[in-house]
Amino acid sequence: MASSPFADPAFYADRYPTYTALRKASPVLPVSLDGGASTSAVVTGYDEARQAFTAPLSKDAGAYFADKPSGRSLHPAIARTMLTVDPPEHTRLRRLVTKAFTPARIDELRPYIRALAEQLVGTWEPGTEVDLVEELAGPLPVTVICQLLGVPTSDRASIRSWSTDLFATGDHARIDTASHALAGYMAELIEAKRARPDRSLLSDLIAVHDQDEDRLSEDELLSLAVLLLVAGHETTTAAIGNSVLALLQHPTELAHLRTSPHCIADAVDELLRYDSPVSIATWRWAPEEVELTGTKVPSGSPVFVCPGAANRDPAKFPDPDRLDLDRANAASHLAFGHGLHRCLGAPLASAEVEIVLAVLLEHSPGLRLAVPADQLVWRQSRLVRGLVALPVNV
Questions:
Q1: Could you tell me which of 12, 107, 202, 253 has the fewest CB atoms within 10 Å of its CB?
Q2: What are the extents of the domains in the chain?
């Protein structure tokens, strides 16, 4: 049995050597994540991860922890969302929000996203240093999802702060406090929208709660609103930062995009594969014994599927540690998951990364790192692989 691979602080700076070592040991490996006797199955192989995403694994954390007191005070709207339930409940909830992220709806948003990106980049003075996370990668996705949900402009900084706290791995008090602050805010916003409906997605969800035959309960309405708000920007912020950093570290590929801007949409798939914003997928466990490409996962075992590792599996992606914007099978990446729980907002996230890169290429052609790459600070989160800051010279 391997000891926890995630305890070393070096893992957060560069987790790919750890993933490679785990995969070489076994693409499905029992690992102690807390230093105790209990183990979890960590899935690092591509085929194994793809199978795990469709295997009879449960996402119902409530069922798993029912007889395991945690001492936590996470708000129920965060503890039980569409990400932590199984079909048919998951199927019903997902169906109610799918229409918000159709290709047609995303196309309608593109001009707004483009204008917002140009507005943010347009404030940068040539010859200055800016933090691309703070000035672009962070505010753009949170502004877009807040616009969709109808969150007032004056509240968006608080939303971003609470959301960041939710992903503070290991800091349970900070996470729990943020969960109550965010859920409390959204409950108040729901009442405000109920009193004065508008054309926002949140008003649409309230209408489903109040009128639709297949209606949402009040708890479901709140949990969906919170989930959309958080999931709608956190990983996209990471994806933008990771993508820009990857290009700045690979000048040949960056030059290729500058001369062929029509290739940006396809390049996004390779950028997501190369440095996936979701490094370890959300919670799963095996209600009964499951076999993943020949490896048996015992009944009751937690399962951690690692898209970040699967996307660097040489059996699927030759020379996986190389950024290759012409990679033929890049679209096969698992950065958005796979199967029933594949990221609902994937079309929106891809569009935001694509548009940001296009705007940067047009408006900041001389962009470069302001510090050596090994001095960059990465977020201490198992789930999200993203930068705390990305200082660049304009």
A1: 107
A2: 10-393
